[in-house]
Every structure is written in structure tokens, then in C-alpha cells.
Amino acid sequence: MSYSLIAPLYDLVVERPMRESRRTSLAALPTHEQRRVLISGAGTGLDLPLLPELHRYTALDFNPAMLAHAVPRGKHLEVDFVLGDSMDLPFADAQFDHVVLHLIVAVVPEPQRCLAEAVRVLKPGGTILLFDKFLHPHQRAPLRRLFNVITRRFATRMDVVFEEVLGSTPLLHVEYDEPALGSGWFRRIVLRKK
Ligand SMILES: C[S@@+](CC[C@H](N)C(=O)[O-])C[C@H]1O[C@@H](n2cnc3c(N)ncnc32)[C@H](O)[C@@H]1O
């Protein structure tokens, strides 16, 4: 519901400041062999113009208003748009070679379920490309925790500790974890399924 209200303004706020981080994250996709790629929580499709054309994409979001903005952005790609829940993906196990999780793990109420679902639909050896805002273990961040009480109700959580989320999914190996934006508040992470 809240993302229906946010949809018309989302690109204005998010597109430009995040563009380079998205580009860097998506550069981890292969460029020679065709793969199946899931974009979970695709939103208005800001990743779509930055994707290599050779892959087959599935862009999933539970909000029709956000997804409606994404459709024209995917015109140059082979992409299926799917209405669905990132915490309960409507796909069989081991369907995808790569899963893109940009600004979704720290948005949903249960980040562990979101990551576990991405792992379930990923083939062994496949990768998860993650870009999001996280707290570090034991980081106090009192302002973010305070704002979280409000923001978690309509837009995003601000209290998610990545290491705690990762701890719930033993099948993953961290290949890469680097600060992206906001002095390391946002991180770019590559995970591989064992
Ligand atoms: C912050 S936006 C990020 C969108 C996009 N990934 C990006 O990088 O711009 C969060 C998106 O997640 C979607 N979303 C939130 N909870 C979801 C859920 N449980 N299942 C699927 N999509 C969800 C919202 O509708 C919104 O489009």
C-alpha cells in the first residue's frame, strides 16, 4: 500500500544517487553465456537499463504500481514481470543462475526469509548480488534505530544487521563485501551458493 504512494516519487529520490552502485553491483553478471536472472523486489525497474541484454530476466515485485513503472524500462530485454512476494517466491527450487537483491533485504519485515527464498530458487554455484543498507554487528546507530520505528511501517527497515541475516542461511559463501554509499551504511555484497 505505502509503495503505491511512493511509486511516482521513487525514481526522483533514488535513481541518481544509487546509479553507480547499481552499475557496479550488476557488473558482476557474466557477459558471455546466457543465464536466468531473478530480480527480487524489482520496484520501478531502475536496474533494468543497466543489465546486459543476453540474459533471461524475471522481475518480481508485490506492488503493481511499482512494477507498472518497470515495464517500459525492460523493453530492450527478455523479461517476465511477476507479481509476487520476495519472502515466498512463486518459483521451484534451483531455477536461477543469479538473483539480484537490490534494496529489498532490508525493506521486508523478515529479511531472513527473503534471503532464504533467494537461496532456494538459486542453482548451486549461483550468485546473489546484494546492495542494501545494513548495520554492522553491535553498531549502536541510535538515530537509525529510532527512525526505524517509523520507516519500517511504510518504506524500509533501518535496523537490519547483515551478519545476522547471513547467519540464518549456511549455504552461502561471501565472495565480496564492500562499502558502497553513506560511509559504509550501504554495502555491495556478492554471495555464492555452495
Ligand atoms: C526500496 S524499493 C527497491 C526497488 C528496486 N529493487 C531498486 O533497487 O530500486 C523496495 C521494493 O520492494 C518491494 N517489496 C517490498 N516488500 C516486498 C515483498 N515482500 N515482496 C516483493 N516485493 C516487495 C516494494 O514494492 C518496492 O518496489
Condensed summary:
The protein has helices spanning 2-26, 64-73, 111-121, 142-154, 162-167; strands at 36-40, 56-61, 78-83, 96-102, 122-133, 172-181, 186-193. With 194 residues, it is α/β, with parallel strands linked by helices. It has a single domain, classed as Rossmann fold, CATH 3.40.50.
Fold blueprint:
Layout: H1 2-26, E1 36-40, E2 56-61, H2 64-73, E3 78-83, E4 96-102, H3 111-121, E5 122-133, H4 142-154, H5 162-167, E6 172-181, E7 186-193
Parallel strand pairs: 1-2, 1-4, 2-3, 4-5
Antiparallel strand pairs: 5-7, 6-7
Bound molecules: S-adenosylmethionine.
S-adenosylmethionine (SAM) binds at residues 3, 14, 41-43, 46, 61-63, 66, 85-87, 102-104, 107-108, 156.
Description:
The chain has one domain (2-193): Vaccinia Virus protein VP39 (Rossmann fold), CATH 3.40.50. The longest helix is centred in the first third of the chain and has 25 residues, at 2-26. Helix content is 34%, strand content 28%. The protein has helices at residues 2-26, 64-73, 111-121, 142-154, 162-167; strands at residues 36-40, 56-61, 78-83, 96-102, 122-133, 172-181, 186-193. Helix 1 (2-26) packs across helix 2 (64-73). Strands 3-2-1-4-5-7-6 form a seven-stranded mixed sheet. It is globular and about 45 Å long. It is of the alpha/beta class. Strand 4, helix 3 and strand 5 form a beta-alpha-beta unit. S-adenosylmethionine (SAM) binds at residues 3, 14, 41-43, 46, 61-63, 66, 85-87, 102-104, 107-108, 156.
